[in-house]
Amino acid sequence: MTVDISPLALPRYGEPWTVDDLKRLPPDHTMKYEIIDGSLVVSPRAGVYHNGIAAKLCRLLTRQAPEHLLTSMESGVKVRGGATYFEPDALLVVEAAFNQREADHLHPSDVPIVIEVLSSSNRGHDLVTKRHYYAVAGIPQYWIADPDEQTLTVLVLGDDGAYAERAVVRPGEQWKSDEPFPLVIDPAEIF
After folding, report:
1. Predicted confidence band at 1 (pLDDT cuts at 50, 70, 90)?
2. Domain Putative restriction endonuclease spans what residues (predicted)?
């Protein structure tokens, strides 16, 4: 038996990381790789409970979304010309975006809702950094599920290019919206 070992072709010293560099890394199902302004950010993959929340959010959106929208987990989104790349926990995506066979990421214009589930290891990353970059990318809504507080925070992109808090919903409370389509959310279905 032979093992094919390819040398890593990482960025040269002082050069930024790109999505193409991520493709050259060896497969690793234990870590999550993202890029912020050309810097590689490595974090542990989420656990079962965390992924269950993301899956339940996908199911909730799938039941209510029009047919031209699909939910996805951990599909990458490239923002800021490729210098920043995230793998959100869940997304709502225009179905046509998945027809690109060679694409390794989604374009922000195809993502009406991006969702992150907070974890103890990267709360600031999701609450501050990703909030900023998702807004800069023009993604209309950013949802943050907090398992500790059992809240779903809905942020909506304003005319000023920043997110404004639309709702903070707890289990047993219903939040209704017509954006991006008529939907009803009760975090009791999530947590």
Report:
1. low
2. 20-182
